């Protein structure tokens, strides 16, 4: 074999330069900030859970990073399904991996300040919950407004005490209609129309035989006429005919609470469905003489739907779509006015052995609910809000029409997180879920997980 100086030079150069090339490559991708996310099933959704540092244990944590920073996201597969993580704004995408314990890495460099997002691109996984925010630097005023907005959701624990055994009396109810931009979903806001700055409106509680005076004031800043129709009222329009109130004006009427039951009230100004979908609904309970049986916990929950011009998931301030409402194609379903009202904002809690009562109504305006609590059985269901007859017993799921109600009662016997849902379960992906957290000692005769 002939000796080749060129071949020897090439070989020596490759050997000597290899460590230098490796060092250069490591330096190029030495991230300024590193985050670790583990995929999991939690809160009834597919999610990322933060591992380590400030995001440890957080579901779909917000990643806060400076401008012009090299960021690395390590994704660990914690549930065995196929997953990845992408950050489209930075043209970055990890490999898809399956199998519990497998991992993948995403690396990108940030630019200017703003709000961006990461998610799983496997079909259906983003809609099922695998999405989080990336906040770069200090967002400007517009970005901050898209993240932060007024909370108009009504706490399910905010309702008056039981009437009890008192006699009939005169009762006054004051309502104020307002039009306010409020929080709808993460990074999303919407101009709601409300009773008393809340969705749903106040829980009104009276006794059969009470004479109720209703005063309705329309805020002077409103752009619309508003009214109120109580389904518990016997009279023209349930009161709506005499409460078509212009901005800055007040109207009132009185009615006799003739029938016991749980009833919806709502705005009934044309176009009525438009006013309802924007948040103008609530419940009035007319207790029978002697009141309701005593329970340990009472909650107030209402379901509604919103029709936005923008597709589900778009950030910023959304606008109303008349066409989607008329076609009955909502982009969002909500409990108590927001997609996260009963998962993040308000915490429903009970203890093992306690009895729970849920006053549930559907504002609508269009969708019927198949109300269900995952992991529980309703001991008693007062179907369609009727309180004068015997309740149904041992019920799994109950149908509630738009403009309708139900009252359910059950004892909680085992600790854990129980999900409030509409059993048309695809609606969970559009925001319709709530949590009831039950604490206490487990009874393994009732339920025993096998390791």
Automatic annotation (TrEMBL):
Cofactor(s), by name: Cu(+); Cu(2+)
Q: How is the cofactor bound?
A: Binds 1 Cu(+) ion.
| Keywords tagged on the record | Copper, Metal-binding, Oxidoreductase, Repeat, Signal
At the top of the EC hierarchy, this enzyme's class is oxidoreductase
The enzyme's E.C. designation: 1.7.2.1
What InterPro entries does the annotation carry? BlueCu_1, Cu-oxidase-like_N, Cu-oxidase_C, Cu-oxidase_fam, Cu_oxidase_CS, Cupredoxin, NO2-reductase_Cu
Keyword Chloroplast (UniProt): no
Highest taxon of the source? Bacteria
Reaction catalyzed: nitric oxide + Fe(III)-[cytochrome c] + H2O = Fe(II)-[cytochrome c] + nitrite + 2 H(+)
Signal sequence bounds:
1-22
UniProt keyword annotation of Oxidoreductase present: yes
Which Gene3D superfamilies does the annotation name?
Cupredoxins - blue copper proteins
UniProt-listed PANTHER family: FI03373P-RELATED, MULTI-COPPER OXIDASE
**NCBIfam families attached to this UniProt entry:** Cu_nitrite_red (TIGR02376)
Q: How does it assemble?
A: Homotrimer.
Assigned protein family:
Belongs to the multicopper oxidase family.
What is the designated name of this protein? Copper-containing nitrite reductase
């Amino acid at each position: 074999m002939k000796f080749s100086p060129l071949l020897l030079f090439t070989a020596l150069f490759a050997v000597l330069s290899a460590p230098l090339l490796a060092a250069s490559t490591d330096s190029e991708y030495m991230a300024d900030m590193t985050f670790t996310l583990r995929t999991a099933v939690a809160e009834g959704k597919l999610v990322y859970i933060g591992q380590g540092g400030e995001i440890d244990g957080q579901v779909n944590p917000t990643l806060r990073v400076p401008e012009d920073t090299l960021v690395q996201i390590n994704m660990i597969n914690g549930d065995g399904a196929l997953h990845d993580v992408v950050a489209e704004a930075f043209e970055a995408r990890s490999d898809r991996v399956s199998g519990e314990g497998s991992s993948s890495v995403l690396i990108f460099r940030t630019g200017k300040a703003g709000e961006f997002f990461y998610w799983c691109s496997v079909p259906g996984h983003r809609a099922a919950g695998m999405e989080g925010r990336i906040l770069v630097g200090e967002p400007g005023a517009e970005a901050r407004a898209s993240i932060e907005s007024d909370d108009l959701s009504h706490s399910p624990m905010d309702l008056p005490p039981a009437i009890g055994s008192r006699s009939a009396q005169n009762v006054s109810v004051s309502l104020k209609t307002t039009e306010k931009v409020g929080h709808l979903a993460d990074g999303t806001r919407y101009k709601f129309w409300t009773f008393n700055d809340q969705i749903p409106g106040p829980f009104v509680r009276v006794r059969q035989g009470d004479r109720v005076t209703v005063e309705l004031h329309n805020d002077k800043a409103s752009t619309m006429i508003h009214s109120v129709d109580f389904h518990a009222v016997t009279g023209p329009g349930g009161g709506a005919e005499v409460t078509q109130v212009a901005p800055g004006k007040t109207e009132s009427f009185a009615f006799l609470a003739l029938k016991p039951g749980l009833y919806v009230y709502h705005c009934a100004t044309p176009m009525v469905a438009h006013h309802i979908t924007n948040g103008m609904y609530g419940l009035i309970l007319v207790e029978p003489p002697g009141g309701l049986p005593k329970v340990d916990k009472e909650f107030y929950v209402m379901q509604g739907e919103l029709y936005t011009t923008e597709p589900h998931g778009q950030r910023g301030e959304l606008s109303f779509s008349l066409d989607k409402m008329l076609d009955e194609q909502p982009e969002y379903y909500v409990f108590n006015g927001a997609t996260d009202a009963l998962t993040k904002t308000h915490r429903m809690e009970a203890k093992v052995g306690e009895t729970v009562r849920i006053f549930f109504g559907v504002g609508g305006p269009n969708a019927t609910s198949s109300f269900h609590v995952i992991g529980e059985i309703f001991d008693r269901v007062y179907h369609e809000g009727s309180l004068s007859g015997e309740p149904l017993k041992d019920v799994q799921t109950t149908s509630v029409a738009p403009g309708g109600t139900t009252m359910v009662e059950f004892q909680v016997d085992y600790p854990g997180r129980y999900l409030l849902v509409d059993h048309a379960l695809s609606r969970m992906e559009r925001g319709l879920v709530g949590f009831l957290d039950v604490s206490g000692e487990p009874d393994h005769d009732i339920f025993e997980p096998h390791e």
